[in-house]
Amino acid sequence: MPGSLEYQYALDLCLLMSSAAPSQAVAIIAQRPFYRAAFALRLPHAPISPTGTSAAPRLIWAEPEQPTAAAVLAQLSQPEVSQSLCIITSNWLARRLPEWRTASPAPAHAPLGITGTLRLLRGTAWHVTQVYGFHAGVSIVYGVIGQVWHRLHRPDLADRWHFRMQAAYVQCGWRAWPAPVSVVLARRARAAQSG
For the chain, does the N or the C end have fewer beta carbons within 10 angstroms? Predict the structure, then answer.
């Protein structure tokens, strides 16, 4: 089960986006035990597939990985009923999170990261509508400054920087790229929907 706030935010955002229309079903693509366990607790009745063979109006893909991402995306791009896709990605900064340092096996083997995921989606049936990053660049800097003030025995200033860090915790668009964990939201492109 995810312990870091970054993964909890990412999982919650995917669940929130997939539950926008409660009557529509959601299917989950997750190859790794870390994500399968997290989604089994949060969505116990949703089908979880490692390859993307489950079709539902809303899909959640937990962590595209280098060896299998293209095959899974090809499966997801088939003209099925799926209209929205929520993808959880992580980059090299995620290696400092407790899930990567202590979990066995790690959340992913060879994650594509945000750049690789966006590159993979380019020119497919999926149009990226938004990218969210959790604990991205400015939030990390504010947190470090707060820790410095805490070590200097200035809890008043440490507290201010901690609140600044929290205010900048979720970033959108290009500001999301340095985040340890990100979520990419995509919709099926109009041409793919109509034919």
Answer: C
* Token pair of 129 as six digits: 């509508």
**Can you name the residues that pair with 51 across neighbouring β-strands?**
none
Instruction: Kindly list the distances between the CA atom of residue 111 and the CA atoms of 19, 47, 89, 92, 162, in Å, as whole numbers in the listed order.
Output: 26, 22, 7, 9, 30
Q: How many CB atoms lie within 10 A of CB 157?
A: 14
Per-residue pLDDT 10s for the chain (195 aa) are 567 788 888 888 888 877 755 556 788 888 888 888 888 888 877 777 777 666 777 888 999 998 888 888 888 777 666 788 899 999 888 888 878 888 778 888 889 999 999 999 998 888 999 999 999 888 889 999 999 999 999 999 999 999 999 999 898 988 888 889 999 999 987 654 444
Q: Report which residue type is found at 75.
A: Q
Helix (H) or strand (E) holding 84: strand 84-90
- Cis check for the bond before 105: say yes or no (omega within 30 of 0): yes
The Cα 16–Cα 43 span in angstroms is: 11
Identify any residues that bridge with 27 across adjacent strands, giving them in sequence order.
Answer: 59
Cα–Cα distance measured from residue 126 to residue 120, given in angstroms and rounded to the nearest whole number: 10
Question: Domain residues of the chain, as ranges?
Answer: 5-134+179-194, 136-170
Please, which residues bridge with residue 182 across strands? 89, 133
